[in-house]
Write a structure and sequence with these properties.
Layout: H1 3-7, E1 14-16, E2 25-27, E3 37-40, E4 63-66, E5 80-83, H2 87-98, E6 107-112, H3 117-130, E7 135-138, E8 142-145, E9 148-151, H4 159-171, E10 176-180, H5 183-187, E11 198-201, H6 209-212, H7 215-227, E12 234-238, E13 254-259, E14 266-274, E15 277-282, E16 285-289, H8 294-309, H9 314-321, E17 332-335, E18 342-346, H10 351-365, E19 371-375, H11 385-396, E20 399-402, H12 412-420, H13 427-431, E21 433-435, H14 439-449, E22 455-459, E23 466-469, E24 472-475, H15 478-487
Helix pairs in contact: 2-4, 3-8, 8-9, 10-11, 11-12, 14-15
């Protein structure tokens, strides 16, 4: 692609060099930069791309995008320097142009919030397919280009990966796409340059404060996604969440709401709930769905609203709501051979998510059967939520086993100590709590405690099939472990 054509996608503050040249590769990785390529020097959280620019001398790099012109720019043997206000934003727009602006060639829906992003985005993708369209998905669990599964490494990838996948979706004939929009991605401008047909807000509770530092910063990162939506898009928000209407304050998009409690554009209601499904009402139309819990009722109401806002037929949407199935590792149920004990694997890894999933189980099993919860907390992440997670698990469960999650570079016993601090002053909570650092043993112990009719909840990892210990990923899948443990009853 001609450099001059690429530059039409961004605001250039200063151009030092010739723009009449061919670009053979666009990259933000200096290791990939070679003759004919354009390198974008992004200032990241841990690494500043500008520090790698001196190493590009003599490599024949065609262009380098910077936010500050190097003093020795003339020594780079014909390399064109492009000065912009923010290189991260520029990368998003350049990536879109490089791949032919794929987000403009399909209808892209972004989903953001603390909990429910994966489920909501995945179900919008599934709904599009049930409606008869080819569709794509960018999610924490897996990416899809129509029916082709592609391994996911981040909740929201970098701009080049996003646009490459979107371009593949367009080439595959996809008309729609859904993607999770994480707070990190919004804050780091990974979605810059994308055109969204709509945005969905699920909820906002404490998470990622290790990165954002304050809850207000976290909220602002989520809100920035809605601020960026165009006038032709829709902004669908959960008004039962106290931050729901905040998301709409400055958006240019069409403002729409959904709720289980209040008057809204899209109203959901739980009529009857069981472990194998729920009878729900959507805007007065009753449908049996294959999901359990109020948190899933919110996710489904958001999917219903987004489906109608995308222009799909109401009657077919209602029929297809009943055909949707649970996302891997999200309230995924397993049973002992005789059916007497149920195991639930869920990705709940925040205090609010733990409350939601245990509450959903309690609504079904009632007070006569026990809920035994196995829960841990990740290392090198927000430490403040650890004691709260333990408190909430103990408050709502009959027995609790605190265990290891992904310790990363922390010691598992140190993480457990942080969780135990949350119940140190509560004798009743301490009496019903065990700490077993080995996650496999913790799951087995929970199943051994269970009596007929009880439910064992394994929370925190969901779809993940590994444990990260000292920088190394070891195979570990909660679903495999609970299935094996239940099989020995």
């Amino acid at each position: 692609m001609q450099l001059a054509c690429l530059l039409q996608a961004i605001e250039v503050k200063q151009l030092a060099g010739d723009k009449d040249k061919e670009i053979t590769l666009l990259t933000a990785d200096s290791r990939q930069a070679s003759e004919g390529s354009m390198f974008v020097a992004v200032r990241g959280v841990n690494v500043d791309g500008h520090t790698f620019i001196p190493g590009l001398k003599g490599k024949g790099v065609a262009a380098i995008v910077v936010d500050t012109l190097p003093e020795d720019a003339a020594e780079y043997n014909g390399t064109t320097f492009v000065v912009v206000e923010n290189t991260a934003i520029a990368l998003g727009h350049l990536a879109s142009r490089w791949y032919g602006d794929p987000s403009r060639r399909l209808r892209l829906v972004g989903v953001t919030g603390t909990n429910g992003k994966t489920t909501t985005a995945t179900l919008i993708y599934e709904m599009a397919r049930l409606q008869g369209y080819k569709a794509g998905l960018l999610s924490t669990v897996v990416n899809y280009v129509d029916t082709e599964a592609i391994h996911a490494t981040q909740t929201t990838p970098d701009p080049l990966t996003i646009n490459r996948l979107l371009a593949q979706m367009v080439d595959a004939g996809c008309s729609y796409a859904a993607m999770e929009v994480s707070s990190h991605a919004a804050d780091q401008h990974r979605i810059a340059g994308l055109t969204f047909a709509g945005g969905v807000f699920t909820n906002l509770t404490r998470d990622h404060l290790d990165y954002h530092k304050t809850f207000q910063n976290y909220l602002n990162a989520k809100k920035s996604f809605f601020d960026s939506l165009g006038a032709d898009a829709f902004a669908l928000t959960n008004i039962d969440d106290r931050n729901g209407e905040v998301m709409l304050q400055n958006t240019r998009a069409r403002r729409c709401t959904y709720s289980l409690r209040a008057m809204a554009d899209f109203r959901g209601r739980v009529v009857e709930s069981r472990l194998d499904g729920t009878l729900m009402s959507f805007n007065g139309h009753e449908v049996h769905v294959q999901f359990t819990g109020r948190f899933n009722a919110y996710n489904l109401t958001a999917v219903f609203g987004a489906s109608i806002l995308l222009g799909w037929d109401l009657e077919k949407v209602l029929v297809d709501m009943s055909r949707l199935v649970a996302v891997a590792g999200r309230f995924q149920a397993f049973h002992s051979p005789d059916g007497s004990v149920t195991g639930i694997v869920d990705y709940a890894h925040t205090p609010d998510a733990v409350v939601n999933v245990i509450t959903a189980i309690r609504e079904v099993v009632g007070p006569s059967h026990a809920i035994i919860t196995v829960v841990g907390a990740g290392g090198n992440r927000d430490k403040g939520k650890r004691p709260i997670m333990a408190q909430e698990a103990c408050r709502l469960s009959d027995r609790v086993i605190l265990t290891s999650d992904n310790p990363r570079f922390e010691q598992p016993l140190d993480i457990l100590a942080d969780m135990e601090a949350g119940i140190a002053d509560d004798p009743q909570a301490r009496r019903k709590t065990l700490s077993i650092a080995d996650r496999r043993e913790a799951i087995r112990a929970a199943v051994m405690m269970a009596q007929p009719g009880d439910v064992v909840l394994v929370a925190g990892k969901g779809h993940e099939d590994y444990q990260e210990i000292q920088g190394v990923k070891h195979h570990f899948d909660d679903r495999e472990e609970i299935r094996e443990a239940l099989g020995k009853i």
